[in-house]
Amino acid sequence: MNKILIIAQREFLSRVQKKTFLLTTIGIPVLIFVFYAMIIYFSVKTTDNFQIAVLDQPNLFNAKLADDDADIVFSFVQNETASSLKQKVDTGKLDAYVIIPKTFDLATIKDSLQIVSKKSIGIMTRQKIQHTISSAIEEKKLLTGLSISKNQLDSLQRSNEIKFASTEGKNDSDVKAGISYGVGFGSGFLIYIILFIYGSMVMRGVMEEKTNRIAEVIISSVKPFQLMMGKITGIGLVGLVQFLIWIVLVIGLQLLLPLIFPDMLHQMQAQPMQPGIAGAANVAQESGAMAGIMSGIGLINWPLILGCFVFYFLGGYFLYSALFAAVGSAVNEDAQDAQSLMLPITMPIIFAMVIMTKAVNDPNSSLAVFGSLFPLTSPIVMMARVAHGIPEGVTVVQLLLSMLFLIIGFIATTWLAAKIYRTGILMYGKKPTLKTLWQWAIRKS
Amino acid sequence: MSMPSILQLQNLQKYFATQKALDDISFNIEQGSIFGLLGPNGAGKTTLIRMITGIFYPDSGSITFDGKPFNGLNDAIQIGYMPEERGLYKKMKIGDQALYLAQLKGLSRAEAMEKIKYWFKRLEMESWWIKKVEDLSKGMSQKLQFVTTVLHEPKLIILDEPFSGLDPLNANLIKDEIYGLAKRGSTIIFSTHRMEQVEEICDHIVLINLGRKILDGTVQEVKQQFKENKFSIKFYQKPESIDNAVFQVLQQKDNALTVKINDGHSSNDVLQYFLNQQLNIESFNEILPSLNEIFIGLVENTSATARAFQTIS
Hints:
heterodimer, A: 445 residues, mainly alpha, 4-stranded mixed beta sheet, 68% helix, 4% strand, elongated, B: 313 residues, alpha/beta, Rossmann fold, 2 domains, 31% helix
């Protein structure tokens, strides 16, 4: 046991002390942060106080046009001509202008309106202008063209709310379902990535020891099993530490964001994500959405998800990295050889990913239940179900069974992998086939 | 009169799949001796060494180490093994590497530090501590490997081709250390194909071929066993027309003769003959076969090289 720790310590330190570790661990979150900050900056910046003149000749809008956030200033002008407006745009007094001709007919809308600007308008601003004007026209059409009263219009726009509830009487809001979907998919995908990244890290480490010919020196001091477990433990710790740093950094940077862009973030939050059709009612819905998301986040059982994530992260990692170690021990210098032997390992991981995408939509389908119990797929699939909560996504019995199966699966694969590893690590020469690997695995010691 | 045995192997057998890698190997190694383990490629030496180091378990037979049944893990601290195919972590610093390997043997960090400092100083390697293995020459990493093998002063040291890649100066340095370790009570198993090194260094040898022990004894015993009653005789004048029933002339070169004594005669009969011939003898020596000749004579044509233990089909 003590020797496993010595080996794990070396594996851990030799990786953590590398410059590349610092670069990827600190660099990636910072990069993501800068990326997001830039997106926010540019998407908010373009909508800042955009001046647009409206020459409303038929007085269609009653001098009333406003977008939801008042980022765009519509100023109604009179006694202007196209050429005088053009001149103002050219000199920079205005950002753009639009002329609604006298002949503009609400019923047929033969002529399309043209927003004329000097500089190219950003995509967010374009959408906002289009959205504001077209919804104003639509409302006008409903009120005048079809003779619907203002009350009727409001009630029409308000009637589209259909809610879901679970049999337990809890409010199964759409927002919560959406967040569950996001959390389930995200954590499942994260484990998928972890299995590949750290699994192949273990494999490369084993291959290095074998091709370096240090393996024989070491296993005259320790059991091959200790060497394998030490390596797996050490690299697993690297993964945990890396994730911890990432989480701390992401949270820290997110708290930093409002300090850097105080008002921009505020605007961002209030901004509608998808421009809807309805105008006034939509605004009310949008402002409620943020609160809905917050309450949806509150409905998610975070301790359960975090606990399960760590369990399935470790369980899946240990199960698969033992198999990756076995493959690493079997091949020689040639990385090509590893590819074909890795196939039986990568197949179930990819398969699990496919089941996960189904399970996140329908956590109680038989495929999802099978995938979340079978130890080779459960680390990925179960995250998709757990995100929907207990008992909506998964029952306690199924969760405990899945955990038990994963532990049994981990012991079984490690036991088989250790036997392959023990033979393979000292075996040089021709590349073994899957069949020989299987023979090594089931051979009596 | 003999020293107690550090290692006793009894009827060791090892199979790989259906192939017999080792067949009924038994021998003893005396404490403090330098023991030569010889054999052609693929004879089973590496398999045997891996059993002595606890990497492999014998299928049958027993290994007794220092008077007790051998336990690979507990006895690891008492054994130092330098395999023929040896390597180090390329990116690791020399000092850290030595420390790591010593700790894996079971030394505490403090003990390991002390011993590494002693050996690095002794072999003039102190300035290497923060260097990385990839910066070392082959001979330098060989020295480092030797140090990591012996620094915990094990009772049994197994060296597989320890001089390959070393210049004569460093080879002598390591050779002296081997003698010194043996003098201080360590037993050394020395495996090599260089027979002149075996003759120079080893007290006792065992030769393995095709998984079987075919020779066991001290270097002198073995040479006596394989002597062919050949003598070289040198005269002060050129001998003429030699014809007798006592010996055959194998070679004549000026004043010197190489002869082989016929069965039923002794060296004294040869001397008697020449004394009777009135020839003045300058020197009279028995020609003992070299280990190289014995090795080739025993192993040749046994298709040993055709056996490949390294690949199991």
